[in-house]
Write a structure and sequence with these properties.
Blueprint lengths: L8 E2 L3 E5 L5 H7 L6 H4 L6 H13 L7 E9 L4 E13 L2 E10 L8 H15 L4 E6 L4 H9 L3 E7 L2 E7 L5
Parallel strand pairs: 5-6
Antiparallel strand pairs: 1-2, 2-3, 3-4, 4-5, 6-8, 7-8
Length: 174
C-alpha cells in the first residue's frame, strides 16, 4: 500500500489544513472547554502538551502500512481554527480502510461545521481510493451520529468499545 499523506482540502466554508506542531497554541484554546471532552475523553491540554502530541502525530505511524492523516479545520470567513478531523488509513483484506474522527470547539458547534468538515474528509478519502470509511460514535451522541450520516456513513449493528460503528463502503455505491 502506498502511504496516504494529508493535503489541504477546501469545502465551501472551510479549509482542512494538514496538522502542524505550530497549530498547538491556537488549538489549545479551541479544545479548552472541559464539556467538549464528555464524549471524546481526556481533558483540555496545555499548548506544550499539544505540541508534543502533535509532533508525534505529524511524525506518523511507526507502521509503514498505516497512514496517520490529521488536519486542523479553519473557518475561512473568520480566519480561525475551529476543530480537527483525522483519518487512520490501513490496508485490510477488503481493501483500504480509513477510521475517521472529528471534533469542533464548543463556540463553533451548531453551525454545520463538523458535518461539512467530515463530508469533505470522506470525499477526499474516496478520491484516494479508500474502499471503506468507518467512524465510531457514542450511542448517546446524537449530534455526532448526524455528522456521520451527513458524511455518507450509515450505522451498523457493530459496537466498538461501547460506540456504534458507522460505515461507508465503496461497493455499496454499485
Amino acid at each position: 500500500m502506498n502511504s496516504i499523506r494529508p493535503e489541504a482540502i477546501a469545502t465551501p466554508r472551510l479549509d482542512l489544513l494538514p496538522l502542524s506542531v505550530a497549530h498547538a497554541e491556537e488549538m489549545a484554546v479551541v479544545l479548552a472547554d472541559p464539556v467538549l471532552h464528555t464524549f471524546i475523553g481526556g481533558a483540555p491540554a496545555e499548548p506544550d502538551a499539544l505540541r508534543a502530541r502533535y509532533a508525534g502525530m505529524v511524525a506518523g505511524s511507526p507502521d509503514p502500512a498505516v497512514s496517520w492523516c490529521n488536519w486542523v479545520v479553519r473557518l475561512r470567513g473568520e480566519a480561525v481554527l475551529v476543530g480537527t478531523v483525522q483519518a487512520t488509513v490501513t490496508p485490510s483484506g477488503d481493501g483500504t480502510v480509513a477510521e475517521i474522527a472529528w471534533v469542533v470547539g464548543t463556540p463553533w458547534q451548531g453551525r454545520g461545521i463538523a458535518s461539512e468538515a467530515a463530508s469533505g474528509l470522506v470525499a477526499w478519502l474516496r478520491e484516494q481510493a479508500v474502499e471503506t470509511v468507518i467512524a465510531h460514535v457514542h450511542p448517546d451522541h446524537r449530534v455526532s451520529a448526524a455528522v456521520a450520516a451527513a458524511a455518507g456513513l450509515a450505522p451498523t449493528e457493530q459496537l466498538h468499545e461501547g460506540e456504534a460503528r458507522w460505515q461507508w463502503t465503496s461497493c455499496a455505491d454499485a
